[in-house]
Amino acid sequence: MKDFDLSAYLGVFLDEVDEQLQILDSQILELEKDPKRIDTIQNIFRAAHTLKGSSASMGFEQMKEFTHHLESIFELIRSSRLNVTSELINVIFESIDFIKELKQAIVNGTLETIDITAHVNKLSAFKNSEGQKEKTIHAEPHVVSNPKHPLDEFQKNIIQSAMLIGHHALEITIRIVESAIMKNVRALLIHNNLKEAGEIVATYPSVEVMESDENFDDELCFVLVTTQTKQEVMHIINQISDIRSVSINDLTGVEHEEKEMLETTVVSQTSQPQTGTSKAKVNPTVRVDVDKLEHLMNLVGELVIDQTRLVDVRSRLTGLQSRSEEDIDILDEVTNHLSRVITELQEGMMKTRMLPIEQLFNRFPRMVRDTAQKANKDINFIMQGKETELDRTLIEEISDPIIHLLRNSIDHGVESPEERKALGKPKKGRIELRAAHEENHIVISISDDGRGIDPQKVKESAIRKQLITEEDANKMAERDLIYLIFKSGFSTAEKVTDVSGRGVGMDIVRSHIEKLNGIIDIDTAVGAGTTFTIKLPLTLAIIRSLLVKFGSKTFAIPLVNVLEIIRLNKEEIQMVKDKEVGLVRGRVLPLVRMKERLGIQEEGPGREKKREFVIVVGIADKRIGLIADKTLGNQEIVIKSLGSYIGSPPYITGATIMGDGSVALILDVSRVVREEGTQDDENLDNNRKKELEDEGQFVTFKLDKEEYGIDIGRAKDIVSVPTIVKVVNSPKDLLGLINLRGTMLPVIDLRERFNLPQKAQTKSSRIIVVEEAHQDIGILVDEVTEVLKTGSNTIEKPPAHNQYNQSKFIKGISKLGNRVVILLEFDEVLSTINTEQLKEHLNETVTI
Amino acid sequence: MTIAAVNKTTQFVVFSVNHQHYSLSIEEVVEILRVPMITGIPGINEMIEGVINLRGSIIPVISIHRRFQLPTQTKHKRNRIVIVQGKVENIGIMVDEVKMVTKFDLDHVEPPPGLKIEEEIFTGFAKLDGQVIGILNLEKVLYDQLG
Asked: Where does the signal peptide begin and end (chain B) (predicted)?
């Protein structure tokens, strides 16, 4: 029976051990901060006791023995017989680590081989130093006969502490029917049931005796600490058959005196908020095997695929103009409803996989403390957003990168207390770990108020380690320099410490995060601190993606990585150093023709397109544009692996199934971006930026056959021609007034200005609204052609000796292929019009 | 697998590729499909045609033609994909036509004639109605040229 119990409850036991160890970790940190706080000590004591109890009930002797020793230390602390020193805390932490080892040993089945004496001795050293006699505190009670058992010191202590948090102690005496078979089994059942209701402080006879079925008479006695009432406990016991009688005696009254006495001493503390683990408000939960959930999740994934297929079929059916429109309506309804249900189901499933990040965060305070101590730093560690939920697989995956970043902050970021003092900063460094939801992402940030990352130091180090040439480094922007820390083999630490500085960190952190479809960003200021921000999708299994075509092949691009979709004209795509770049709002965007990069061969000649779809994708602060042939829209996709046979082909992370049942591939954005990154985009960027600085943008328009351009800074608006109201007694070239969003705008006729013959307005006629000091002015042109970007090197000065008086209107002439664009000096054009006068004139006219 | 493994009770799936007959033990075959839409994957081993969706699973499909460097055949209605058990996952093999499922008489199975290539790819040759049918060594076919 014991063997059976073991295998069935081992999982539950291990979970419980984990839980209790975590409580210990966090509460002991509290204890270190405030050694006098009673409820912290109570929590610690309870956790240690639970550990002891459960390991004893599972029969793990070493663990029981060791936790017992640990517990007695806590007992000493609680009774103020032992002072909390950092030395003691260290030993306690070591002990907790040792329990973790023991736990691992249980999993591996090697528990028997572990020797606990060394660790026990360390603990005992403290006990003995305080001159305490130990081991008498909690001897296993072998007394079987006495029904009203005297409680020993230790048990009384538990009861007292339980009463402080509102529990009461019950002495339960149970008689089992004499003729009942397997009495010991029943006894154990009762024992287990009671354990659910509260904490069993004492058992007579002991559990061991119950199990062995020797010296076992019909009477059982338990001392139970619980929040439940007598009736409830009675009910629990009566669920088991063959019980002759039950009597329950409330011990709380018996110990009343002691309770009051204790209360007077702790009254000030109990008014503090309870941070503890009192079982008061816990939502009922069910522990589920992760595999089972995983399976359900897969099924939901299948459903999602089927649903998209249904939608696809429906749309095709509607296209066929089927006669049975009624049927299609029904199909419509069904698919719509199905979509809704599936979406909800999917969300629900996703939520079952969600865990609060607390699970992960709770490990950190301890780690930060240890690391800080080793590095001789004084650190105030703050965590926020513990309740933020994310996919459990993500929690596992994200742990290492966060640990690494935290260590970096402690080791490299925060200065030593002396240094901080000299800098006028508070002695205690501050490290903050935050988690929050942002739309469909989770954002985790780690910030410190340390020395920040110095781009110059990064640069020097990178050059010294030959990660980059000096020449290249000099061209890089400061921001880009900082990102060099993500290169493999990089570390600025002067010497390698135990904590960090081996130069194998940040690149792994980055690749880890990119593997999760995440993004990492750095924000740093020298002397003020550094913030690392990690942005991750909420879940890994199902993601939103943008479907595009590269050639005839459909690819899915995770929407997390997509920043925008733009269309670029052929002229806006230029060659720099044999690479294509696009100009987007003054920024240079490296372009990748994915079709060629992927090596997709197409039958038939590729058409030269006038405009290209460019999908701007980003990882960290790198942006590149992917040229696609077509965009198909957004879709939820279920990520599937390509399997080991195919392995991991370049630029592809996996596959997904489309609505029509075909397979589409998922693009590995990080790989493409990374590749572009290694090709010295930074320099390219800088070179291009210089060229851009000399570049002007012009709105070009046509008058007759000539093309003119005016500085884009001057053109406020371009509107089609509304009715123009003639103004009496106006200069000849003033065409009249138009109503532009409620204000009157004078319009001049540029043909008249340029002495060109009059021509009737056409559909393509436009009015360009030009900004002028006193009054905006509209100019009527035949056609607006485009916004032209042109470098100053392509602009020629107009010939100096020119017989035409217009020449002063001309700023320059831009030659673009076989086009000639005359760039106008607009102030000159308008100079003959006295705009101020015009305004007055206008006001007069309007008031008349 | 040696010839000894080809006992009398085993059945074989016989198919043709480029007018040649080949066979695989039925134990290795999971199912036989009509050819669905195959999605090619750029940048992988040439002999892998691509992947298909088999009831929600992604299955790689290899082309026997390309594996044996035979001229590619035009598509045909009778083309099939034979799904076999690979080391880790199921893998599809594109064949021109599945002929039959039959038992081979052990007496009519001969060892490979000694040519090196043949020794590697075939475990033996069976004679059936005057035709010679190569029994494929699945592991070699699937994994030898994978690189």
From this structure: none
Give the sheet arrangement for strand A542-550, strand by strand: A630-638, A542-550, A553-558, A663-667, A652-657
Judge contact between A487 and A507, C-beta under 8 A. Answer: yes
- Please give the structure tokens belonging to residue A577: 């150093």
Q: Which helix (H) or strand (E) holds A53?
A: helix A38-58
Token pair belonging to A724: 């123009």
* Cα distance between residue B93 and residue B67, in whole Å: 10
Do B56 and A655 lie within an 8 Å CB cutoff? no
Out of A30, A32, A43, A49, pick the active-site residue.
A49
DSSP state of A634: E
Q: Do B39 and A663 touch (CB under 8 A)?
A: yes
Closest CA to A534 of A354, A698, A366, A402: A402
Residue A424 in contact with residue A443, Cβ under 8 Å?
Answer: no
Give contacts of B37 with chain A, Cβ < 8 Å.
Answer: 660-663
**DSSP code per residue over A370-407:** HHHHHTT--EEEEEE-TT-EEEHHHHHHHHHHHHHHHH
Q: Which DSSP string corresponds to A211-276? A: HHTSS--SEEEEEEEESS-HHHHHHHHHTSSSEEEEEEEEHHHHTHHHHHHHHHHHHHHHTSPP-S
Q: Residue A287: count other Cβ atoms within 10 Å of its Cβ.
A: 7
- pLDDT reported for residue A706: 80
Tens digits of residue pLDDT in A480-503: 788 778 776 675 554 444 444 444
pLDDT score for A807: 55
Q: Which residues contact A601 (CB under 8 A, 6 or more apart)?
A: none
pLDDT digits (tens, 9 = 90+) for A143-196: 333 445 666 666 767 776 666 666 777 777 777 776 666 667 777 777 777 777
Q: Are residues A774 and A831 in contact, defined by beta-carbon separation less than 8 angstroms?
A: no
More confident residue, A138 or B77: B77
Measure CA A430 to chain center. Answer: 21
Task: Reply yes or no on whether A71 is catalytic.
Answer: yes
pLDDT in tens, A185-218: 777 777 777 777 777 777 777 766 666 655 566 6
For the packed helices A2-33 and A364-374, what is the interaxial angle rounded to 10 degrees?
50
Short-list A209, A202, A168, A170, CA closest to A188 = A209
Following DSSP, what letter does each residue of A188-227 receive, concatenated? Answer: HHHHHHHHHHEEEEEEES-HHHHHHTSS--SEEEEEEEES
Residues of A in contact with B36 (CB under 8 A): 661-662
Task: Return the residue matching tokens 């000030």.
Answer: A268
Which of A141, A135, A376, A155 shows the shortest CA–CA distance to A251? Answer: A155
Q: What is the pTM of this model?
A: 0.45
pLDDT in tens, A693-730: 445 677 888 887 788 888 777 777 888 888 888 877 77
Name which of B36, B40, B88 is nearest A643 (Cβ-Cβ): B88
Whether A766 contacts A720, CB under 8 Å: yes
* Domains detected in chain B: 3-143 (2.40.50.180)
